[in-house]
Amino acid sequence: MYKEYISYILIVLIIIEIAFTQPIISENAIDYWTPEKMLNAKLLHLPGIKNKTINNSEKANLFASEDENKNPLLAVGQFFFTLDGIDNACTASVINTQNGNTGMTAKHCLYSNGAHSVNMIFCPGYNKGNTSYLGKILVTNASWADGGDYGVIKFDYNGGLQNKTGSFDWGLTPSYPVRIATFGYPVDGDVNCTHDGKTLCIWRGVADQHKHGNISVPLLLGHGSSGGPWVMGNNPSNPKNLGDVIGITAFGNESHTYSYILNFTLIRELITW
Ligand SMILES: *[C@@H]1O[C@H](CO)[C@@H](O)[C@H](O)[C@H]1NC(C)=O
Ligand SMILES: *[C@@H]1O[C@H](CO)[C@@H](O)[C@H](O)[C@H]1NC(C)=O
Ligand SMILES: *[C@@H]1O[C@H](CO)[C@@H](O)[C@H](O)[C@H]1NC(C)=O
Ligand SMILES: *[C@@H]1O[C@H](CO)[C@@H](O)[C@H](O)[C@H]1NC(C)=O
Ligand SMILES: *[C@@H]1O[C@H](CO)[C@@H](O)[C@H](O)[C@H]1NC(C)=O
Ligand SMILES: *[C@@H]1O[C@H](CO)[C@@H](O)[C@H](O)[C@H]1NC(C)=O
Ligand SMILES: *[C@@H]1O[C@H](CO)[C@@H](O)[C@H](O)[C@H]1NC(C)=O
Ligand SMILES: *[C@@H]1O[C@H](CO)[C@@H](O)[C@H](O)[C@H]1NC(C)=O
Ligand SMILES: CC(=O)N[C@H]1CO[C@H](CO)[C@@H](O)[C@@H]1O
Q1: Between 106 and which of 183, 199, 212, 226 could a Cys-Cys bridge form, CB atoms 3.0 to 4.6 Å apart?
Q2: Residues enclosing ligand 6, CB less than 6 A?
Q3: Which residues does a 6 A CB cutoff place in the pocket of ligand 2?
Q4: Could you give the angle at the alpha carbon of 184 between the alpha carbons of 182 and 190, nearest 5°?
Q5: 94 forms bridges with which residues in the sheet?
Q6: Which of 228, 196, 201, 188 is nearest to 50 (CA)?
Q7: How many Cβ atoms from other residues are within 10 Å of residue 84's Cβ?
Q8: Considering only CA atoms, which residue is closest to atom 12 of ligand 8?
Q9: Which numbered ligand comes closest to the C-alpha of 55?
Q10: Residue 185 — φ and ψ, nearest 5°?
């Protein structure tokens, strides 16, 4: 009995150590984010990359088109939040769960140097500075762990947001290199699209892994793309099959952008709702 109690405590302590959950009651977040604030939100700095002059002709062979407006993609959106007193924006996506109200973004969009994001909202299908018909969705919980720059968020939407947006599957571990599509709202970087931080930019190309470490794509996805999904099997002509998330835009160097390898066991544990 006593032994059982001890191991129970131990398990609880381990869970507390690896998983931080931040329950935030922010009913005002919907009102807080006026259209003006959304347009003026700072696109969160992508750790590691220095701002450089964009020269689109450098990597012309890598470019994909942003023109996917015929099939508005609602499973990706802009994620607005206040961190350390500053109004910021990142990218987030809806992932396939039983509760229907779960998304993913980067950990550094949820937590930084002891500060937790507040006023969190998700705008599915945000594009060219406009919300979709789904408007602003309140984000009521966020959870993440040490050792990877990604986390899960909980949407407050009756009936499950993914019923309206569709969702990305997850759980596949590809062998590298692998063809993927990346999604984000950058203000700069190498993707051939309107880098205004308000327009969804999609890049299709190959992600590779070096020495069993993090995975990378050979271009700068740009500031504001943090938290965007890296998706394999995404077929733009079949919106019912969005593909599988295998990465989340996390950081960059002078030439490449990185994602951590996602630990799907951990992600399952982080979804406590
Ligand atoms: C780099 O770009 C980001 C995003 O536009 C901006 O917030 C930041 O201030 C810039 N940093 C420098 C050193 O110019
Ligand atoms: C961009 O890079 C290409 C190839 O390096 C070069 O030819 C071109 O002059 C550059 N354009 C600008 C505007 O710097
Ligand atoms: C960038 O996109 C535009 C519009 O889709 C296209 O006309 C142009 O050829 C593209 N540039 C490159 C270098 O791929
Ligand atoms: C929203 O989209 C409409 C066209 O559908 C455009 O006229 C308007 O400028 C957009 N709003 C913003 C803030 O860009
Ligand atoms: C999604 O909608 C269907 C009916 O359209 C409903 O049966 C199901 O419960 C909904 N999913 C969630 C998570 O609420
Ligand atoms: C992934 O990148 C981070 C940040 O540079 C680093 O701390 C970590 O060790 C890397 N992980 C692997 C498995 O290479
Ligand atoms: C950036 O990352 C790529 C891929 O990991 C690597 O080949 C390259 O050397 C890195 N560049 C710098 C300046 O570290
Ligand atoms: C993934 O997460 C689980 C649960 O937290 C953990 O037990 C496992 O060691 C992790 N796997 C890797 C490869 O880090
Ligand atoms: C699982 C979990 O942390 N749930 C919390 C989500 O946030 C609400 C408040 O918005 C809390 O009441 C829940 O406990």
Answers
A1: 226
A2: 213-214, 260
A3: 55, 57-58
A4: 75
A5: 103
A6: 188
A7: 12
A8: 263
A9: 2
A10: -120, 70
CA triple 38-250-198, angle to 5 deg: 25
Cβ of 50 closer than 6 Å to ligand 7, yes or no, is no
Query: Tens-digit pLDDT profile for the chain (273 aa)?
Result: 444 444 444 444 344 444 555 555 556 999 999 999 999 999 888 887 766 655 554 444 455 555 555 557 899 999 999 999 999 999 999 999 999 999 999 999 999 989 999 999 999 999 988 899 999 999 999 999 998 999 999 999 999 999 999 999 999 999 999 999 999 999 988 888 888 999 999 998 999 998 878 999 999 999 999 999 999 999 877 777 899 999 999 999 888 999 999 999 999 999 999
Please state the atom number of ligand 7 nearest to the C-alpha of residue 210. 5
Q: What are phi and psi of 204, to 5 degrees?
A: -120, 130
Atom of ligand 4 nearest to the CA of 35: 13
* Binding-site residues, ligand 8, Cβ < 6 A: 18, 263, 265-266, 269
Residue burial 167-195, b: 16+ Cβ < 10 Å; e: rest: bbebeeebeeebebbbbbbbbbbbbebeb
Q: Is the CB of 192 under 6 A from ligand 3?
A: yes
Ligand 4 atom nearest to CA at 130: 1
- Find the 21 Cα to ligand 9 centroid distance in Å: 9
Residue 17 buriedness (CB in 10 A; 0-12 / 13-18 / 19+): exposed
Q: Which residue has the CA at smallest separation from atom 14 of ligand 9?
A: 23
Reported as type and span, the H/E element at residue 264 is helix 264-270
Entry pTM? 0.83
| Per-residue tokens: 243 | 């593909």
41 Cβ below 6 A of ligand 1? no
Sequence-ordered strand ranges (E) for 97-211: 102-105, 111-112, 115-116, 118-124, 137-145, 151-155, 169-170, 178-184, 201-209
